[in-house]
Amino acid sequence: MEERAFLTVDVPVLYQEIRAAAKTIGDDQRRRAAMLQRLKSYYQRWCQDWLGDETRPFYVLNSRV
Questions:
Q1: Distance (Å, whole) CA 43 – CA 21
Q2: 7 with 1: CB under 8 angstroms?
């Protein structure tokens, strides 16, 4: 580390730490993640329908009306 910036990253060790942390995820958290994955497509579709196709932002400050 130099001036608060990482100069190198040991990628294999990083992946080892991530795998070790992932093993500690409990069954409740796994079930919740699976449920959210199943709901994701419905939520994205709902948001798209709610927002409509293309939007043009309106800012009162820049309005010419």
A1: 29
A2: yes
pTM for this prediction: 0.44
pLDDT at position 25: 82
4 phi-psi bin (left φ>0, alpha ψ -120 to 50, beta other): left
The whole domain housing 30 covers 1-51
Whole-number Å distance between alpha carbons of 23 and 54: 42
Q: Which residues, at least 6 apart from 7, have a Cβ–Cβ distance to it below 8 Å?
A: 1
Mean pLDDT, rounded, of the chain? 84
pLDDT in tens, 37-62: 999 999 999 988 887 766 677 777 76
Number of domains in the chain: 1
Taking each continuous run of H as one helix and of E as one strand, the counts in the chain are 2, 0
Which single residue is written with the structure tokens 């309106």? 58
